[in-house]
Amino acid sequence: MLPWKRVLRPLAALLLTAAVAVVPAATAQAESAPSHGWNDYSCKPSVAHPRPVVLVHGTFGNSVDNWLALAPYLEVRGYCVFSLDYGQLPGVPLFNGLGPIDKSAGQLQVFVDKVLAATGAAKADLVGHSQGGMMPRYYLKFLGGAAKVNALVGIAPDNHGTTLSGLTNLLPYFPGAEDLLKATTPGLADQIAGSDFLTKLNAGGDTVAGVHYTVIATRYDEVATPYRSQFLSGPDVDNVLLQDLCGLDLSEHVAIGLFDRIAFHEVANALDPAHAKATTCASAFS
Predict the structure, then answer these.
(1) Which of 80, 65, 70 is nearest to 24 (CA)?
(2) 146, 16, 19, 125: which is closest to 77 by C-alpha?
(3) Which of 116, 64, 115, 109 is CA-nearest to residue 85?
(4) Is 186 exposed, middle or buried (0-12, 13-18, 19+ CB in 10 A)?
(5) Taking a C-beta distance cutoff of 8 angstroms, is the pair 39, 82 a contact?
(6) Which stretches does DSSP call E strand in the chain?
(7) Which of 127, 118, 119 is nearest to 149 (CA)?
(8) CA 206 → CA 130, 137, 138, 231, distances in Å?
């Protein structure tokens, strides 16, 4: 017979994952909710949270669907929250993040300027999922974003590209496949490990001075692989593995960004490190 501990562990993990998915974001700290909401340009940052938060969706995502859980989670904690659409392709609705990533970074640049002008803040904080956690690094490094951004929080960001669990290694066996990918969906091609875009992005170091970097990864990531390639090197970097905070968390690439409240708790810590609270399995219910 299996020991009770070995039987209960997967059961506990399953229950925790269910809890992460269903606990509504609006249940926490409702008394501190801001007077204005998500993408409301009349929202003014508070003394407690003086910087607006810009949410940057991932590949195939958009400014709404990617943030149906995290945006309210941050709003109810007193943040002015904004999100943008970027990387659109002609004739492709809803599924964004497919255009050239350097051009997407230019769209982020324009959006951040718009948010700062509306809120009167000197700097913003950026939180991105997948490509949305990596693409802002181009804005910070090459488009002057470091002067306008305090922190970048990447949730499962493909900072050094991805092998898609080894699938990209098959491209050389299909003549013309990579060229077709570059021509039709350049945003996907840019994310392949070893791409020209990523070589330029990471040359000379992963980070730029003056910006606080946080990476939140999951060992069960099946998209941004290998998962440790998400981590950054350099000063003022905090690399976090979700399972080091809660070994029972089974979230993979999509879940960690869409509804994992344990990851969200760590995002909140990164945005306000002076008032950070330990992230544990119980954070799923906070």
Answers:
(1) 70
(2) 125
(3) 64
(4) buried
(5) yes
(6) 53-56, 81-84, 124-129, 149-155, 212-217, 237-241
(7) 127
(8) 16, 8, 10, 9
Rounded Cα distance between 228 and 244, Å, is 13
Does the pLDDT value for residue 29 go beyond 80? no
From the list 7, 14, 65, the residue with the least C-alpha distance to 284 is 14
Q: Distances from the Cα of 229 to the Cαs of 188, 195, 217, 254, in angstroms?
A: 17, 14, 10, 17
CA nearest neighbour of 105 among 56, 71, 60, 149:
56
Structure-derived torsion over alpha carbons of residues 9, 10, 11, 12, reported in degrees to the nearest 10? 50
Q: How far apart are CA 206 and CA 134, in angstroms?
A: 10
Residue type, 36: H
pLDDT digit string (tens) for 90-101? Answer: 999 999 999 999
Nearest to 82 by CA among 112, 49, 58: 112
d(CA 80, CA 135) in angstroms, rounded, equals 22
The three-state secondary structure class of 43 is coil
Question: What tokens were used for 111?
Answer: 């959006």
The pLDDT-based confidence of 163 (bands split at 50, 70, 90) is confident
> 126 pairs with which residues across the strands?
54, 152
